[in-house]
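Data deposition worksheet. Section B asks for the primary sequence of the deposited chain exactly as it was used as input, without tags or linkers unless they were present during the calculation. Section C holds the resulting structure in token form. Section D is free text for depositor observations; keep each observation to a single sentence. Incomplete worksheets are returned to the depositor.
Section A, Depositor: J.P.
Section B:
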Amino acid sequence: MIKILTKKYSQSVRYICEKLDFELAKYDVVISRSKQTALSVIREATSGKFSALIIVGNVGESCENFVEALGLAVFYDKFAESNIIKYCTYAKVDVPPQYIMDKLCLAPETFNHIAPMYGYQCACYGEYNKKQVFFVPDDMRESALVYDSYISKNLFKSSDGSTKYVFKLFGLSQRDVEKRLEKLSKSVLHSCETVNLDTKLSITFAQKTSKTIIADTLKLVKELFGVSIYAAVDQSLAKSVVDVLKKGGQILSTAESMTGGLIASSIVDISGASTVFLEGIVTYSIQSKCNRLGINPHYIDEYGVISQQTAQAMAMGLRKNGSSIAVSVTGNAGPTAEDGQPVGLCYIGVATERNVAVYKNIFQGDRNSIRQQATNTALYLVFKTLTK
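Section C:
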């Protein structure tokens, strides 16, 4: 378990969290401006079950809190001073006055500073009580550099020196994925796992594999799977949807029948979803579809509750509530045919400001598997609509 301490959820913190997600690492984020909370978190993280502590923010202040919390000695790091002066010379800015340098160059005893690339603050790292500790400036570019060059290499060393890449795919069977992978070199190790149409594909290269072979293999993987790839890191469909919604400043709403709220639940499982998710409505009955989404009962009588037209009307009625994109689901999850409609039949509507698209699907499996396949498909269709 890795503890992350910060005063705010910034782009730097988000980047580090996404990288840790990629490594499937367990971590806990504490966001607080309280000094007493910071001291408490530092003591907890360096004495308990945690393997590492990452503090994101003002490095000088972070170091001060660290040594105060643990009663450690500090020293003035001439290496940090030299690199700050080099940065200022390169950037053609004034060297900070000495009272600021005193804070910028402070470090716990036995810790090391990292030369800055994008500002005054030098990141700092070391080990205390067999715990890895990193002080990271709250600058997106600097934090990315520190993570990739130091945090990742210290926390996730491979015992055999191999390198692994992960791709997330959607809409293919495991047999189809494995069939396409036969075109890869026999020297490239790979594995895949498909659950409810969602696939995790891992590609592993031995330690001495050349960069050219790695690059060519990754290019081939992208050619083999094309639009089926929705992420080049190990993250869920829901996380990918939330990320693209945030990037585009879009707001999502859901109207669900056969999925019973699974789409909405998947979205709100993701931290930060409140900024992009307006509402989720489970319109399970015909009455609910009519009352909550403004659908004329005669319309459903004419076309049927499980139909392309009803899915379209559900999505259109939902988007009127103020969302920029809406997704609707209606279908039969089984276990028996309903009104002549086969088990697994599902219509998914995706409405945007421009149009409403409806997708017909026939899923296989038991009731719960069909509902989860419908949920994943709806998330994927939202993702593809937003990334066209």
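Section D:
The longest helix spans residues 367-386.
The first strand starts at residue 2 and ends at 6.
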